[in-house]
Recover the amino acids of this structure.
């Protein structure tokens, strides 16, 4: 299963940096002429650091499921207030609390730019929140299953990803699963 966003428009060397590090991006050698630039996405205020250019590894369906469950748990146990406050602080970085803890970021599938707070509000509040809440009343929550089943297509995008033109990129291997040292879960996520 191919988990790369493939674009053939440019050829540059591969540059990578950890999402969670404050260091400058480092260049690595690669046999592929395609580029992969991951700048420090969680740094505030820098326009050049708010992009994932050209390529990025797509998050696996399993890791996206864990991120969704983390978001749901935070929302449920915090009565929504904890998740909303945490989301407000993370929205400008193109992530949610669950995606953040799983080392993921939401990017525009065409340009590769990290979603800003406006697109994140549309994606998370309007599309995933209100639309699913309204449809869930009529469809007895089957809409969540339909939305999630789209992730098993070749593009690995859910229905809400297709609606807004987003993709979830795995920017870091520093996930909550690795920090908790759950080896069995970690190997399942990387299948």
């Amino acid at each position: 299963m191919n988990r790369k966003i493939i674009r053939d428009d440019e050829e540059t060397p591969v540059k990578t940096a950890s999402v969670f590090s404050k260091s400058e991006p480092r260049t690595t050698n690669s046999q592929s002429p395609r580029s992969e630039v991951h700048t420090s996405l969680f740094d505030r205020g820098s326009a050049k650091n708010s992009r994932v250019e050209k390529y990025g590894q797509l998050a696996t369906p399993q890791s996206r499921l864990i991120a969704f469950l983390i978001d749901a748990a935070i929302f449920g146990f915090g009565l929504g207030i904890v998740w909303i406050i945490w989301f407000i602080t993370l929205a400008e970085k193109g992530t949610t609390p669950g995606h953040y803890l799983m080392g993921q970021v939401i990017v525009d599938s065409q340009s590769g730019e990290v979603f800003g707070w406006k697109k994140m509000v549309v994606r998370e509040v309007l599309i995933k929140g209100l639309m699913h809440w309204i449809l869930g009343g009529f469809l007895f929550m089957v809409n969540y299953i339909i939305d999630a089943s789209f992730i098993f297509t070749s593009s690995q995008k859910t229905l809400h990803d297709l609606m807004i033109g987003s993709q979830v990129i795995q920017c870091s291997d520093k996930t909550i699963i690795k920090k908790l040292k759950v080896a069995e879960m970690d190997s399942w996520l990387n299948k």
User: Anything to note?
Assistant: Residues 117-139 form the longest helix (23 residues). Residues 58-189 form one domain. Helices lie at 61-77, 81-90, 97-101, 117-139, 142-149, 159-164, 176-179, 183-189. The CA atoms of residues 133 and 140 lie 10 Å apart.
